[in-house]
Amino acid sequence: MKNLIRTIVLLLFGVIGWAACGAVFYAGEIIFKTYLAILIHFILAPAIFAILSYLYFKFFNLTSPLRTALVVTFIVIGLDFFIIALVIKNNFQMFTNVMETWLPYGFIFITVFTTGLNFNDKTLG
Predict the structure, then answer these.
(1) 3-state DSSP call for residue 26?
(2) pTM of the model
């Protein structure tokens, strides 16, 4: 039962963060040009996940910082791949833009991991 709760909480954490980042990007595309939306997303994605990871580690703290960062980052990548690239855009061009995808993924990982380290010393597992 504990594994099920852990899985559900991590999935929710990843999906909520992904949806918030998507809303920022979509709003940015509507209000501004695409390159400015990418820049705003680039800046706000780590901030969104910093807030969410703070809440996760403060109230749940069910997994180590490393495991949490890996799982959440792969959830975001997976949702981008299956929902955005395959279903919405019907292409994988977004993955050729380092600032649109790969740097935010890296910053999401670093943000979640370092926030978790501030809450405990479990770096592996």
Answers:
(1) helix
(2) 0.92
Number of domains in the chain: 1
Of 19, 11, 108, 110, nearest to 62 (Cα)? 11
- Residue 75 falls inside a structural domain: yes
Q: Is 122 exposed, middle or buried (0-12, 13-18, 19+ CB in 10 A)?
A: middle
Distance (Å, whole) CA 105 – CA 103: 5
Residue span of the structural domain in which 57 resides: 2-119
Residue 3, CB-side half-sphere exposure with 13 Å CA sphere: 0
Residue ranges of the alpha helices (H) in 32-125? 34-59, 65-79, 103-119
Q: At 120, phi and psi to the nearest 5?
A: -160, 175
Segment 100-112, tens digit of pLDDT: 899 999 999 999 9
pLDDT at 49: 98
Does residue 55 fall inside a structural domain?
Answer: yes
